[in-house]
Amino acid sequence: MRLTFFDPPRDEVAAVANDLIIRFGLHSRDEALFLAGLSEQMRARWNRRLYRLAAREIEMSFAEARRRLGVEGAPEAGSNSLVASTSPLARWAA
Hints:
Layout: H1 10-24, H2 28-41, H3 45-69, H4 82-86, H5 90-93
Helix pairs in contact: 1-2, 1-3, 2-3
């Protein structure tokens, strides 16, 4: 449940989620949770809540995209997968 006075505004959460998706692609949810953990260590409650909400928003966005594309029954990513070849972090993983 979101409390309007204690939680970041929806547009701010959406903007952060969008920015993380653009920067980190499929790893954006993990990055949001990592940033939430850092915020917790720094005792920054607002940022921690912001990144946790952004992670939830990213998760819902990816689920909606999968549902729309009908990817649930698709085979696992292989060497011919576009996702694996176009990932911005693929070059760092190698």
